[in-house]
Amino acid sequence: MTTPPSSVKWLEPGDAPASLIAKVGALPVGKSVVLKVLRKGKPLELRLALIEKPRDPGSDQYAVAYSDVTSHGHRMRTIITQPRTPGRHPALMFIQGFSPISYDYRLDGPGLDAPILLAFARGGFVTMRVDKPGVGDSEGGPFATVDFVTETDIYRQALFQLKGLDGVDTSNVFVFGHSMGGAFGPVVACEIPVRGMILYGIESRTWHEYLLDTLRYQELLAGKSYAGVDDDVRASSRAMEMVFQDHMTTLQIKASHPELAAIVDTTFPGGLFNAKTSDFWSQLENTNFAWYWSRCGARVLAAHGASDFVTYSVDHRLVADIDRGRKSRALADGRVQSRVHRYHEGLDRSGHAGKRMTSACAAVIRRTANVMRASGGARGRSAGSARDPGCRRGPARLSCSPSAAATTPARRVSCRSSCS
């Protein structure tokens, strides 16, 4: 049994429970700790056994491999499902949205975006999902300091890994970009060709335009007056330009433009915007996504939820218009009724609308993959194992790497208490 040094206070008065969770979560699997707490004024010792977070066990249709890629010197967790049938299979890489949420979960459970991944895993596709820096088993971070260029490289390395797996038909690789994933997706797909892309709830204009739309419509939804919203949009536009384009600090803005102090404090609490430093947003603002879309050879399906108030149909139409302009065969574009920003949720509490969305996406991609096969795109490829021959099972882990012990990130732990 090990205990933290007596001089270390893990939780200060007033700290949120998340502080304790983060500190315990950083400890390796197999360690034990004793927490000394006061309960109803009486001291109590809680003995915690640190065990590995349960893995996705897969199913009779697909196996699950826990692997990793290296980006900027840090190992990033990749989770791969592979059909149990032999041969080469089409593949889907899922790029999640903005928030630092772990995608290390069972696909048949309630995990965020699990339905779309489960549909493809059961449908004979190899699938891949990636945890962001500092999230789950992934190294790096913290989330606030990871900029757009740095995070983009994670998905670049992951796509390289996916296309290098022995069981993948490299002529039929697809990318699904949800929300912010629709910003990372075209950058990566321009460098590493893919067959097609599915996009839901994305942004494709300049980020200055998009953020002003977000401010306007969400403040109106919150009940603010039209005149008040107009004032906020004007002030926010000036403040965002100073931060994202002129690289001014919030203190500099308030000193030189005191009339913007209130909007700066509201928009950039603690100097951050949406819990990120200005570097992330400056790089987004300086990225010409139309340039990437015009040069991306992938066929595109762009879908927007009719009830989505986080993103807007104009961004999806822009991608579709660019796609048509380069005379490629676009998959489709359109609206999904009763859908909010999380495409598998919606006004239908039964989840039926979400299932229809998932099934529609799977059907469109499968038809595209079949067209590719019919045209001979996979010609000359011999059938092989659906499992990477480099995968090996070590003690309680499965890793696609030459040396699991040397290269696989430590598993995140879950805490089990012996005291009730």
TrEMBL record:
Low complexity composition bias: residue spans: 374-387
Species whose genome carries this gene: Eiseniibacteriota bacterium
Name this protein carries in UniProt: Alpha/beta hydrolase
InterPro entries: AB_hydrolase_Est10, AB_hydrolase_fold
Origin superkingdom: Bacteria
Region (Disordered): 374-403
GO molecular function annotations of the record: carboxylic ester hydrolase activity
